[in-house]
Design goal:
The chain is an alpha+beta fold. It contains 17 helices and 20 strands. Among the domains are: 87 residues, 2-Layer Sandwich (Uridine Diphospho-n-acetylenolpyruvylglucosamine Reductase, domain 2); 117 residues, Uridine Diphospho-n-acetylenolpyruvylglucosamine Reductase, domain 3 (2-Layer Sandwich), CATH 3.30.465.10; 111 residues, Alpha-Beta Plaits (2-Layer Sandwich), CATH 3.30.70.
Length: 482
């Protein structure tokens, strides 16, 4: 139940249409893009100013009520799942680009600014914002900061953390701090980098200073089709071993190809077991020289067809197919889990072959779409929530894929974060000392554990990693199945 004293305090400065309390009003906020679990908040605040956000956080601290910041709700790990009876602070209306300096190549934005809108604002100056998650048409910079999002071009340009210079944030007790600044050369500890990827446990970003890059002079985009998924994975290792550093390398398997073709008609070869997309970008002279080398490497990797984007429109179609793949898979299955593990590039082929075996073993289809350049896998596990036991089977398969990533020397997450989905797997990747230090840091900043309570850090003993069964938060009554 919501805290009545807190609700009364919020109502003194928030109009009724921006302080949501009715069941029908709260329903859209009960889950994020991880729709398998839901939790009803006590209230949702539709903040319009930074001052309002600070005041809400102060009141939550005073009344010891947990709060969760939410942007567009595109988290695939349950990162913005509400705390039952707590407060959701919606940040979509904090969507101003406060300042854009083309000479210094920086922009200061509020957390509700859509990722792609930063590039649109910078485009007239020949600049752009490099991190490009597949959801960049809708995801917000605040959410990108919380989960250190990447995207197709993170191979060459890095993750969100590599592009954030400074953060103005409100800490869980209501204190407002400035972390970092607006210079590429920082002095002292990288506090902005410390905040990025903290999944909301350290507070809420109010303003983010990001660096902008000059738009590349030339792009060269290659599409290669293979008869096997493992061959496409091995081709990635061959491209990297050649000494080339593409802007992006992406792989899609046949299920993802079929879905994307049905949705956006990207012109992909429908019979391919796997597609490899490789893109070079930069100065014209350098790109043209590297392009000849790239074609030699790709053709030697055993594709049965190689295409080169003829113009900007052709390149846009290729990328539209890739970036629509997640949503397009909804055409193949009523429900699916999007996993987010990482493996070393040298072991991509091995990992993909193992995922195919696990898929057959569990009798569930898996569509593979991933950032091949940095080994960030996104297996989409297809299931029907209406079939008894199928969600549990899908979760078990997802867990075995995460275990596989760890065994191959990788990670349980590349950019989607831990959220509630992967908390149980943290002890498989980190030892007790590592986890204790993480928890001590969190408690030093938020002793009451109010900011995004129940995310990332595990509580107590982790359940079996080979068969999670009932989610630990479900056992505690924190979340429920949809």
């Amino acid at each position: 139940m919501p805290n009545s004293a807190l609700i009364d305090a919020l109502a003194t400065f928030l109009p009724v249409h921006r302080l949501l309390r009715q069941a029908a009003e709260l329903a859209p906020y009960e889950s994020d893009a991880l729709t398998a679990f839901r939790s009803r908040p006590g209230a949702v605040v539709l903040a319009e100013t930074q001052e309002e956000v600070v005041r809400v956080v102060e009141l939550c601290h005073r009344h010891s009520v947990p709060f969760v910041a939410r942007g567009s709700g595109t988290s695939l790990s349950g990162g913005s799942l509400p705390v039952a009876g707590g407060v959701v602070i919606a940040l979509n209306r904090l969507n101003r680009i406060v300042h854009l300096d083309p000479q210094r190549r920086i922009a200061v934005v509020e957390p509700g600014v859509i990722n792609l809108d930063v590039t649109k604002a910078a485009a007239p100056h020949g600049l752009y914002y490099a991190p490009d998650p597949s959801s960049q048409l809708i995801c917000t910079i605040g959410g990108n900061v919380a989960f250190n999002s990447g995207g197709a071009h993170c191979l060459k340009y890095g993750m969100t953390a590599n592009h954030v210079l400074g953060i103005k944030a409100v800490l869980p007790d209501g204190a407002v701090v400035q972390l970092g600044g607006d210079s590429l050369e920082s002095v002292g500890p990288d506090l902005a980098g410390f905040f990025v990827g903290s999944e909301g446990l350290f507070g809420i970003a109010l303003e983010i200073t990001v660096r902008l890059l000059p738009r590349p002079e030339l792009y060269r985009t290659v599409l290669a089709a293979y008869h096997s998924l493992a061959a496409a994975g091995d081709a990635v290792a061959q491209v990297v071993a050649s000494g080339l550093l593409p802007g992006a390398m992406e792989i899609m398997d046949n299920l993802a190809i079929q879905a994307a073709e049905a949705a956006v008609h990207a012109g992909y070869p429908r019979d391919a077991a796997a597609l490899l997309i490789v893109e070079l970008e930069g100065e014209r002279v350098q790109v043209e020289a590297e392009f000849a080398h790239l074609l030699q490497v790709v053709e030697a990797s055993g594709p049965y067809e190689v295409r080169v984007a003829k113009d900007d429109a052709d390149r846009a179609r290729i990328w539209k197919g890739r970036k629509s793949a997640f949503s397009a898979v909804g055409r193949l299955s009523p429900d699916y889990i999007v996993q987010d593990g990482v493996v070393p590039r040298s072991r991509l082929g091995e990992a993909l072959a193992a995922i195919q075996r696990l898929s057959a073993q569990h009798g569930l289809r898996v569509a593979n779409v991933f950032h091949a350049g940095d080994g960030n896998l996104h297996p989409l596990i297809l299931y029907s929530g209406r079939t008894p036991g199928e969600l549990e089977r899908a979760e078990t398969l997802a867990g075995e894929i995460l275990n596989l990533c760890i065994e191959l020397g990788g990670s349980i997450t590349g950019e989607h974060g831990v959220g509630v989905e992967k908390r149980a797997y943290m002890p498989a990747m980190f030892n007790p000392v590592d986890l204790a230090v993480m928890n001590e840091l969190r408690l030093a900043i938020d002793p009451k554990e109010l900011a995004n309570r129940g995310k990332m850090l595990p509580d107590g003993d982790a359940p079996s990693l080979t068969h999670p069964g009932i989610h630990p938060l479900e056992q505690q009554g924190v979340i429920s199945r949809a």
